[in-house]
Amino acid sequence: MTRTAAILSALCLAASGATAQEDPIFAGFVSVDLVLVDVVVEDRSGDPVLDLEREDFRLYQDGVPVEISQFTAARRPPVGRADAREGTVPAVATAPRRLVLFIDNIHLRPSSRKRVFDKLTRVLDTHLSPQEEVMLVTYGGTTQIALEMTNNRRALRNALREQSQAGAVSLLAVNDDQRVLDLMQQMRFLQSNGAPGGMSTACLDVDHLAHAHAQQVYSRVLGSISELNRFVTSLAGYEGPKALLHVSDGIPLVAGNEAYRYASELCDGTGMNKGIPNATDTTQNNTLKNRYWDPTKTANTLREFDTTDEWTRLAGHANTYQVSFYTFQARQPTGRASSITDTRTSFDVETESMRNRQDALFMLADETGGVAMLDSLDVEPALVRMREDSRLSYQLAFEPPTPGDGRRHEIRVEVARPGLEVRHRKSYLSKPPEERVEDRVISALMHGLSDNPLRVRLEIGAQEQLEQDQSRVRVNVHVPLDEIVLLPEDEMQRGLFTVYVAVRNGFDQISPVGHRMVPVRVPESRTADEFVYSVEVPVRGERGAIAVAVQDNLGAEISYLEQELRLPSTS
Length: 571
Fold this sequence. Notes:
This protein is of the alpha+beta class. The chain has three domains: 12-31 and 447-566, Immunoglobulins (Immunoglobulin-like); 35-94 and 394-429, no CATH class; 98-389, 3-Layer(aba) Sandwich (Rossmann fold), CATH 3.40.50. Helices cover 31% and strands 28% of the residues. The chain has twelve helices and 24 strands. Strands 2, 19, 20, 21, 23 and 24 form a six-stranded antiparallel sheet that branches. A six-stranded mixed sheet has the order 9-8-7-10-11-12, sandwiched between helices. Strands 1-22-18-17 form a four-stranded antiparallel sheet, with no helix packed on it. Strand 8 and strand 9 form a beta hairpin. Helix 2 (110-127) runs antiparallel to helix 3, helix 4 (170-192) runs antiparallel to helix 5 and helix 6 packs antiparallel against helix 10. The longest helix is centred in the middle third of the chain and has 37 residues, at 198-234. It is globular. 40% of the residues are buried.
């Protein structure tokens, strides 16, 4: 997947085979989705606790107790044996947890990347059951699905081998980080050795360098979060829990933190006491201190580049679709916290840099009920932990007090037995129904995940080539009238649909989801067996795909379909 392009600026729906009229919109079926909370309980030794019952748990939303409407025990019941406990739903526990391997090439050094891929194939062959499904995803500025969800181990091995030979994108980011610290050191060296400008311009210039670098890193981190959000959306069509193993060397929570900390050491006097070469103290010069950067304000400046809120929103979004992050930091321990450059910085800056690159990973895992495995050389424990969690977790479900309000809500789980550690997702986004359908359309478009209870049929109609690589495609959406709810009224039958459409063009760009609510009015003695809509969409390139959802507003069913498009040649 690449960044969204607004190529579906207008959605044109025209009815044929039956009549669509602009009747007043009337109330339809309302569905309230349960909020599912997977819970892992461990004792002080880290061993799983598997004998808890429903009455041992207390569940809260935004600090207010909510009733546990469904409960699934951590132990799976034997095959063929029904669990007679009231309200227990064994079928939920038997659903397999799907595994996503997400390789963040932007934030992963070549040496770390090689170690990870060298072990992944062996570890997956050893620890995965034949039924478990795995997806392989890489991120290098855009998200690419290297292997769709599958239990085909040969296909997985081939995909891992192919990705292990790919180029290392992270070198660009590493070189940027190294260059800014080296430039700061060189600038202070020149100024300390009599270069024109003196002390006053030196510290002003390192501030400018640090700020420009922080902006660059901030943009890169926001891009990573945005792509993770898009990818989590695409998982909406996969039911049940999903475990995402995010592999990186760490991602800055506060962009530009290391550069600004180093700039402060050079100019606020602390570096002089720590033996940092070319350090000075501009804060004590009353003549010049109002004419250049004040390093004592570094903490305030860095708040501008803090991405905590963005990571928190990502976690809430992931929790909505039962995606737990297991973050694996593959960085090789070196004795230096940063390992970015040979420029000499203090231990304090190195330690702060290391912590800053781990905080985002820890937050994402903690907020989604996963585990952060930091500074590790071995990916095997991470995969084992993920599999154990899927087998040993309880599942609680509750009806949200304010469904679909669009807000983020906090979740807290407590157990009555003292001395136990509880791990679970900490929040969720209460998405409006329309937004959940839109997310599911994107999932169908990206992964080909169709679900068609209404027996909707797509027919590719006329295709017209426009300017350059632009085409317009007509797609006819056939909806069987016998599959929808129709209400009698004055020798007529009335129904109501919402049609959602999104397209992917030949450059893997995905449009926003367009939708329109269309009343249906047909005679009781109808001759047509289906209702046909024509959807015209612009698409770029020679290949693409369209995803359509048809929601029966008076019934409980929604159909999702995806179909590839072959477009006129632009040559």
